[in-house]
Amino acid sequence: MLSYKAPITDIKFLFEDVFDYYKHYEKYPEFSDATPDLVDAIMQECAKFCENELLPLNQSGDKEGCTFDNGKVTTPKGFKEAYNKYVEGGWQSLSHPVEHGGQGLPPSLGMVKSEMMGTANWSWAMYPGLSHGAMNTIQEHGTTEQKEHYLTKLTEGTWTGTMCLTEPQCGTDLGQVKTKAIPNGDGTYNLTGTKIFISAGEHDLAENIIHIVLARLPDAPKGTRGISLFIVPKMAIDQQGNVGDFNHVSCGSIEDKMGIKASVTAVLNFDNAKGVLIGDENKGLECMFTFMNTARVGTALQGVCASELSYQNALIYAKERLSMRSLSGIKCPEKVADPIIVHPDVRRMLMTQKAISEGGRAMIYYTAKIVDEIEMAKTEEERKKADDKLGFITPILKAFLTELGSESANHGMQIFGGHGYIKEWGMEQIVRDCRISTLYEGTTGIQALDLLGRKILLSRGKSLKAFTMEILGFCKNKSMISRNPHKRQMNKFIWPLSKAVANWQQYSVRIAIKAKKNRDVVGSASVDYLMYSGYVTMAYFWAQMAQAAYEKLATDVENRDFYRAKIKTAEFYFERLLPRTKSLAATMMADPKTLMQLDEKLLSFV
């Protein structure tokens, strides 16, 4: 019973009015085909595919799940047919290089496609989604021969890809990886070991699966400095690129999970499986970060997708469900009760969902422009500048948007009341499906340590300074009458945002000082610090959207209610959600002793 309508109006608002994507595309001759007419046509066709092909498989796929039989995995009914249509439609090749069979369109346009697919059916979208990370890793670090052998098939979707990091004894701590890679003397290696939690690790959608695998060479140093990266196909590939015999990569089992049941999560056994080294020996973790960063931005998108799908369905229900009368007076006297959308608490939840969905989408599309800049960088200096920016914002996106996506999904379920707990409505499925997003590709705690420990403290706040100066530059520009005729209306956004950014800078310095005396300060403050950073970052984009809406309303633009709604939602965000930073400031600055003062004996419940 789930419904979904691709939010094309909102997407185009971000593309055209907030981030000026077409001017951005004009900077790169490679993106000359990305004209407004073509982009609009792609959006419309993608929306049709997602609404008509993927959405109907969402709940049925959850109910049926994947089946496992003697190492073989069968995806739910309709998944393979939808995947074939996806490949035939050229969707997999949309944003990949022409030299490997791609259409050469911007990666940012691929993000729009990913959002629509992920909202319509996240479980299905994971199968082609994992391939993008594998393709990016091979494109970035592979040899010419490796690109020729693997990228064309991955680009067209005939083959899919995976990322194989985790093992039974280690998750985030990859220094414990035990999978071995033994040189064969001919440039190939035999890999032996077990990998767990491998999304799309085994399925029936494609003729081959290309695994990107972390493993150790015989003489490798201990820890993370001794990890190498390998390409290991499920089925062997000959010199002409044809699929050959089984390559001894077997699926031992699949996980029985809380959610995303239609997306297989496999245990893979490598028994002298033949692979080739990608990148330099013992530099595998550096190469794998190409894949991991791709996956982390994609996971951040999952939070937005869950929020959007839950919001759309909760809004429909809230307009139709009758219960009690409005506290301020009867609104629908002709009915036995008023629709629940008139009640302030239901409005609170709906407005929170709307603010999260649209604010999160803006954060993702802002980041997608950075990805374009990295892809198109002509100098190493340009590339590093964009990469540093992406590296800074990625942990914020991944952790903040998935935490808020889960919150939004729970609001949607709450709006449905008891019906939200019943499977036929689909709301409890969104909650279950979204919950994993805060865990995989690095938990919220791991992302927080990356942000505060590596991106702030180790770099002495260099990336933070660059980003906050960008925000303050926006605030200064919009607070000047000569540059902004909407200064008066924008003050309610500009001043709170400026203050929040200044506080962000000051708290960062204070935490750094405290951490010099007690390293536990980093661990105790990190999650609250990340969430604080997320709320300020989202406020920046809501201010930009409000500014763009005021500018459109100053013209004779149609659909004026859309722009008025943007401004009202921005006001809600600044009055109801941004103030959460005040409590986060108190907790992140608190002494860690209250976390650590109970020893194991005192923590016991016996």
List the helices and strands and how they pair.
Layout: H1 8-18, H2 21-26, H3 36-54, H4 56-64, E1 67-69, E2 72-74, H5 79-88, H6 107-120, H7 122-141, H8 144-156, E3 159-164, E4 180-183, E5 188-199, E6 208-215, E7 228-233, E8 235-237, E9 243-246, E10 249-254, E11 265-278, H9 284-320, H10 344-376, H11 380-415, H12 427-435, H13 444-458, H14 462-478, H15 487-517, H16 520-553, H17 560-577, H18 580-588, H19 593-596, H20 600-603
Parallel strand pairs: 3-6
Antiparallel strand pairs: 1-2, 4-5, 5-11, 6-7, 7-11, 8-9, 10-11
Helix pairs in contact: 1-10, 3-6, 6-7, 6-9, 6-10, 7-8, 7-9, 9-10, 9-11, 9-12, 10-11, 10-16, 10-17, 11-12, 11-13, 11-16, 13-16, 14-15, 15-16, 16-17, 16-18
Uncertain segments of ≥5 residues (pLDDT<50)? Answer: none
CATH-defined architecture of the domain at 287-445 = Up-down Bundle
Instruction: Provide the structure class.
Output: alpha+beta
Radius of gyration: 25 Å
N/C terminus separation: 47 Å
